[in-house]
Amino acid sequence: MPESSSTVSFLLDGSVRSLDFSKDGLLPSTTVLDYLKRLQNHHGTREACREGDCGACTVVIAEEAPDGRLAYKAVNACLLFLPAIHGKQLITVENLPLRDGEKLILHPVQQALLLHNGIQCGFCTPGVVMSMFALYKSNAPAEESLVREALAGNLCRCTGYHAILQACIEAISQRTEDHFDITEAETLKILREIRNTQLEDSFRTREQHYMIPRKLNQALLMLQQYPAATLVNGASDVAVLQNIKHRIFPEILDLSHVHELDFFYEDHANWFIGAGLRLQDLKTIAAGRMPVLHGLLLHFASLQIRNVATLAGNVASASPIGDALPLLFVMDARVHLASVSGSRIVPIEAFILSYRKTDLGPGELITMISIPKPARPSLLRWYKVSNRKDADIASVSAAFSVELKDGVTSDIRIAYGGMAATPLRAAQTEAFLKGKPWERPVVEDAMQLLQNEFTPIGDARSSALARTLAARNLLLKYWSETNADVHE
Amino acid sequence: MNNPGDHSVSHSESNILHVTGMSRFTGDLAQEMECLFGKVVFSKYAHARISGIDITKTLQAPGVQAVISAADIPGSNQTGPVFHDEPCLAEDTVQCIGQAILLIAATCRPEAEKAAETVNISYEPLPAILELEDAMQYGEITGRERWLKRGDTHAGFEQSEYLIEGQIRTGAQEHWYLETQASLAIPGEAGEILIHSSTQHPSETQAIVAEVLGIPRNKVTVEVHRMGGAFGGKETQANPVAAWAALLAVKCGKPVLLQLSRQDDQRMTGKRHRFLSTYKAGFTAEGKILAYEASLHGDAGCTADLSGAILERALFHTDNAYYIPNISVTGRMWKTNHPSNTAFRGFGGPQGMAVIEQVIDRIARFLGKDPLEIRQLNLYQGVHNVTHYGQEIQDNHLEAILQQLIHSASYYQRRKEINEFNSRNAFFKKGMALTPVKFGISFTTSYLNQAGALVHIYQDGSILLSHGGTEMGQGLHTKIRGIAAREMGVAEVRIRVAPTNTSRVPNTSATAASSGSDLNGMAVKDAIDKLKYRISEAVAGSWTSDGKASRREEILFANDKVSHRSDADLSMSFEAAVQLAYKSKRSLSATGYYATPGLAFDPMTGKGHPFHYFAFGAAVSEVLLDVLTGRVSLLRTDILHDTGTSLNPDIDKGQIAGGYVQGLGWCTSEIIRWDQDGRLLNHGPDTYKIPTIGDIPAAFNIALFPGSHQPTAIHGSKAVGEPPLMLAFSAWLAVKDAISAVASHRKEPEFELPASVDTILQAIFALNQTNTSDP
Question: Which residues pair with A144 in a beta bridge?
Answer without folding.
Answer: none
